[in-house]
């Protein structure tokens, strides 16, 4: 049996849908690092033997900026989370494994349809000066400076029963800005909840229905959902265009909108994606039935030393390094100090500071030019590597659909070149007719951004974060053309270098919960502040509980909080909301003594929105101690 499974990991409870033909293959949609990839494969192989492997499992992420940290094994990614957090990795691995397992065990004969349409008002280009540095004749091919096309798959059983939907649309999940401290699927997670709520039976809890609606990521590198654009928050005037600064500093240059705050903006951008997906899903007359075999190919490459052939000669990619503009951040979340975007010259002071970690070699400086190197991560191995070098490259064919998981965030123009070149390879010489190419961003390994060579010269944030140097985009195009040729010719490629798993040797500075106690005179589960017993639609309800530390039990597949109503018919309490609902979006821990000695109160606030007529209700808290 050839098996295709899809997983959407937006909350603590991932879900999957599946179809089958005649040999195994899987696609899983989730934020990913190669240690996560390795651990998921090990779990799958322990359960199913060689049915699943690195060649036929694809993991991809939506790239929400409001998720848990500490599960990426390379040092740079874990600094802000005080090192590696094994509880996060374990929960993600188990959740993805259980999701794929459910998909595997519930496959039915079915059909897959593909359709596409444009969504115009949900995104802007956050680095327009970089985009404008691409050749004029190339830019004239396109009406917009971001990709506006949503590509959608409709999955149904042979008898017509709806099974699921997955779509790809380019927009960063950064509607929830960097002041948010709550776990959130952002605009794509919100869109997914809307779609699943509409397709599943009334009363289904988030992530619990049989129908799966996945809103996946593609070439979002320079694409922002904050459609009001960057403004100086102190004056209201537009930011300086080239550097995204206000009076020479990035801190006051912030993009927002289209709502009055980040929550409303998230809902607006999420609803736009939902509306377009709903239109495409139900407009069956414009969809195309996928037909043909399911195929896949994979090869790992050393992206720090990859030969790139261009019209101007032969070049090599570079060891990883980040430029000055990386520290400037973006209009979605500005950086610190005096860094600004568009910096192409170094500063003696910051060169001295970064040199305390490592002074880049002349070869590295020349390779990355015109990027001034701030962090020479590719030449630092103390206490272990700061950045990955081995990239996992894959391609899957489902009939005339080519899914291309890529290990990073491609910019708009890099993604366009990539899709066009690979499509040409797939259709050349009597290959696949009417091919549909999908770039699945942030897949299998995370390696920051990938810009075009022209965008790289401008050194906006995305270019400074293109860690393998100016020829990275062309290198990936070349590699995926190799994969496409191998698929057409039924070739088996050499595996390439192995991906390291350092999860057992990484540094953890965030200790476990050594002691879990309660305030004097209180016991676990006590209600410190009761809510008012009667609530009306739209009212905000607050309660405080004494809780164990959330790290004691991550409630995998469950919830830290439930809101329950008394069912008039059965006389039983019915769960109507969990911590995955947006109505319970203000769920927080207060008064921890430290990261490892706990004396917690849990403060919860719910906005009751579906209470007609008023009836008895309560909240419950779940925790380990």
TrEMBL record:
<feature type="domain" description="Neutral/alkaline non-lysosomal ceramidase C-terminal">
    <location>
        <begin position="480"/>
        <end position="585"/>
    </location>
</feature>
<feature type="domain" description="Neutral/alkaline non-lysosomal ceramidase N-terminal">
    <location>
        <begin position="32"/>
        <end position="478"/>
    </location>
</feature>
<keyword id="KW-0443">Lipid metabolism</keyword>
<dbReference type="GO" id="GO:0016020">
    <property type="term" value="C:membrane"/>
</dbReference>
<feature type="binding site">
    <location>
        <position position="63"/>
    </location>
    <ligand>
        <name>Zn(2+)</name>
    </ligand>
</feature>
<protein>
    <recommendedName>
        <fullName>Neutral ceramidase</fullName>
        <ecNumber>3.5.1.23</ecNumber>
    </recommendedName>
</protein>
<keyword id="KW-0479">Metal-binding</keyword>
<keyword id="KW-0862">Zinc</keyword>
<keyword id="KW-0378">Hydrolase</keyword>
<dbReference type="GO" id="GO:0046514">
    <property type="term" value="P:ceramide catabolic process"/>
</dbReference>
<dbReference type="InterPro" id="IPR031331">
    <property type="entry name" value="NEUT/ALK_ceramidase_C"/>
</dbReference>
<dbReference type="GO" id="GO:0017040">
    <property type="term" value="F:N-acylsphingosine amidohydrolase activity"/>
</dbReference>
<feature type="binding site">
    <location>
        <position position="409"/>
    </location>
    <ligand>
        <name>Zn(2+)</name>
    </ligand>
</feature>
<dbReference type="Pfam" id="PF17048">
    <property type="entry name" value="Ceramidse_alk_C"/>
</dbReference>
<comment type="similarity">
    <text>Belongs to the neutral ceramidase family.</text>
</comment>
<feature type="binding site">
    <location>
        <position position="449"/>
    </location>
    <ligand>
        <name>Zn(2+)</name>
    </ligand>
</feature>
<dbReference type="Pfam" id="PF04734">
    <property type="entry name" value="Ceramidase_alk"/>
</dbReference>
<feature type="binding site">
    <location>
        <position position="172"/>
    </location>
    <ligand>
        <name>Zn(2+)</name>
    </ligand>
</feature>
<dbReference type="GO" id="GO:0046872">
    <property type="term" value="F:metal ion binding"/>
</dbReference>
<dbReference type="InterPro" id="IPR038445">
    <property type="entry name" value="NCDase_C_sf"/>
</dbReference>
<keyword id="KW-0746">Sphingolipid metabolism</keyword>
<dbReference type="InterPro" id="IPR031329">
    <property type="entry name" value="NEUT/ALK_ceramidase_N"/>
</dbReference>
<feature type="active site" description="Nucleophile">
    <location>
        <position position="224"/>
    </location>
</feature>
<dbReference type="InterPro" id="IPR006823">
    <property type="entry name" value="Ceramidase_alk"/>
</dbReference>
<dbReference type="GO" id="GO:0005576">
    <property type="term" value="C:extracellular region"/>
</dbReference>
<dbReference type="GO" id="GO:0042759">
    <property type="term" value="P:long-chain fatty acid biosynthetic process"/>
</dbReference>
<dbReference type="GO" id="GO:0046512">
    <property type="term" value="P:sphingosine biosynthetic process"/>
</dbReference>
């Amino acid at each position: 049996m050839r098996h295709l499974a899809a997983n959407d990991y937006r909350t603590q409870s991932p879900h999957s849908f599946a179809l089958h033909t005649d040999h195994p293959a899987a696609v899983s949609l989730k934020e990913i690092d190669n240690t996560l990839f390795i651990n998921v494969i090990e779990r799958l192989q322990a359960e199913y033997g060689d049915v699943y492997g690195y060649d036929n499992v694809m993991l991809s992420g939506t790239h929400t900026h409001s998720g848990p940290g500490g599960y990426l094994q390379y040092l740079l990614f874990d600094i802000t989370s005080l090192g590696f957090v094994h509880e996060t990795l374990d929960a993600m691995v188990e959740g993805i494994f259980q999701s794929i397992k459910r998909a595997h065990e519930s496959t039915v004969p079915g059909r897959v349809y593909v359709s596409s349409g444009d969504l115009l008002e949900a995104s802007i280009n956050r680095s327009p000066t970089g985009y404008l540095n691409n050749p004029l004749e190339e830019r004239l091919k396109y009406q917009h400076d971001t990709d506006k096309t949503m590509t959608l798959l409709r999955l149904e059983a042979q008898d017509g029963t709806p099974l699921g939907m997955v779509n790809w649309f380019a927009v960063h999940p950064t509607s929830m800005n960097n002041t948010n401290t709550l776990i959130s699927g952002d605009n794509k997670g919100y869109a997914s909840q809307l779609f699943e709520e509409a397709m599943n039976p009334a009363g289904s809890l988030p992530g619990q229905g049989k129908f799966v609606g996945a809103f996946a990521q593609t070439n979002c590198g320079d694409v922002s959902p904050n459609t009001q654009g960057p403004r100086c928050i102190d004056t209201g005037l537009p930011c300086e265009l080239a550097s995204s600064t206000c009076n020479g500093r990035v801190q006051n240059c912030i993009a927002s909108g289209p709502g009055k705050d980040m929550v409303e903006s998230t809902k607006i951008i999420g609803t736009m994606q939902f509306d377009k997906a709903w239109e495409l899903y139900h407009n069956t007359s414009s969809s195309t039935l996928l037909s043909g075999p399911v195929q896949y190919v994979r090869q790992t490459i050393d992206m720090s030393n990859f030969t790139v052939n261009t019209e101007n000669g032969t070049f090599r990619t570079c060891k990883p390094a980040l430029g000055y503009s990386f520290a400037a951040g973006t209009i979605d979340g500005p950086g610190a100090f005096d860094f600004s975007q568009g910096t192409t010259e170094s500063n003696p002071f910051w060169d001295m500071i970064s040199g305390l970690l490592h002074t880049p070699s002349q070869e590295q400086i020349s390779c990355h030019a015109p990027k001034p190197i701030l962090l020479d991560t590719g030449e630092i191995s103390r206490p272990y590597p700061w950045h990955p070098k081995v990239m996992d490259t894959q391609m899957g064919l489902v009939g005339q659909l080519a899914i291309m998981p890529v290990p990073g965030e491609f910019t708009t123009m890099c993604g366009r070149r990539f899709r066009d070149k690979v499509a040409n390879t797939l259709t050349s010489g009597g290959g696949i007719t009417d091919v549909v190419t999908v770039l699945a961003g942030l897949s299998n390994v995370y390696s920051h951004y990938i810009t075009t060579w022209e965008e790289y010269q401008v050194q906006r944030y995305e270019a400074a974060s293109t860690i393998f140097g100016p020829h990275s985009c062309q290198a990936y195009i070349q590699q995926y053309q190799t994969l496409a040729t191998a698929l057409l010719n039924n070739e088996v490629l050499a595996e390439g270098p192995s991906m390291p798993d350092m999860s057992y040797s990484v540094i953890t500075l965030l200790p476990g919960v050594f002691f879990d106690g309660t305030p004097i005179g209180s016991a676990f589960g006590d209600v410190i502040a009761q809510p008012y017993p009667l609530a009306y639609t739209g009212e905000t309800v607050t309660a405080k509980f004494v809780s164990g530390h959330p790290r004691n039990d991550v409630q995998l597949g469950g919830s830290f909080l439930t809101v329950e109503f008394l069912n008039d018919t059965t006389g039983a309490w019915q769960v109507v909301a969990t911590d995955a609902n947006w109505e319970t979006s203000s769920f927080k821990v207060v008064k921890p003594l430290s990261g490892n000695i706990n004396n917690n109160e849990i403060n919860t606030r719910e906005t009751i929105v579906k209470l007609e007529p008023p009836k008895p209700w309560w909240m419950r808290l779940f925790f380990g101690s």
